[in-house]
Amino acid sequence: MTDLTAAPPALATDADPAWIAAHPRVQRVPSRALTLFIQRRFLTADECVGLIDRIDAKRRPSTIADANGDGYFRTSETCDLDHDDPFVAVINARLDAFAGIASPHGEPIQGQRYDVGQEFKAHTDYFDPKGSDYAQYCSVAGNRTWTLMVYLNEPAAGGATRFTKIGKTVQPETGKLLAWNNRDGAGAPNPASLHHGMKVRSGLKHVITKWYRERPWG
Length: 218
Ligand SMILES: O=C(O)CCC(=O)C(=O)O
Ligand SMILES: [Fe+2]
Hints:
14 strands; 2OG-Fe(II) oxygenase; Jelly Rolls; dioxygenase; eight-stranded antiparallel beta sheet; four-stranded antiparallel beta sheet; Pro_4_hyd_alph_FE2OG_OXY; metal-binding; binds fe (ii) ion; alpha+beta; binds 2-oxoglutaric acid
């Protein structure tokens, strides 16, 4: 459970790193190239179980936006969580409060499930403005800005998230949150946000991912 030190900024369209850094138990990963925060125990073990049950009940094969011809690029399963479910709505509000971003800028939370051997190869969460699918995915709400991701469990082996450009590997831990800015200091898409959801070697891995947009999503 995150204890917030103050009310979030009213109707902010973007996160303030100083706001995030002021939350209790937040660590900033030392890097000039990427703004990346970690907070352990963002969710309780019970909350994680509640999310895992919902993900397992509604999962489907994961997809990627800009198809790149590699059928093994993202082999996990995905679930669009139901925001009419009060349990999900409470967690969604907590993510918004952590980021300090007004709720309409957030995409619905997704769940991801990785079985043994499954992974999400190195990618960025922002859409390439020169990519063929950019207009399709970004014409209304703009590009992705911040990513919040929470590990819901700990696979027995594998499943770390590796930020390849900054040489940082984060190990899954039940309830641990990652928050990073997909843009650089000038506000442009930041290639240093490249990350790889590495293969699970034993056990299962579940995470939730929440992406924020430049403009309201819905
Ligand atoms: O599972 C992970 O460690 C990374 C997930 C991810 O990068 C994504 O869903 O965009
Ligand atoms: Fe990602």
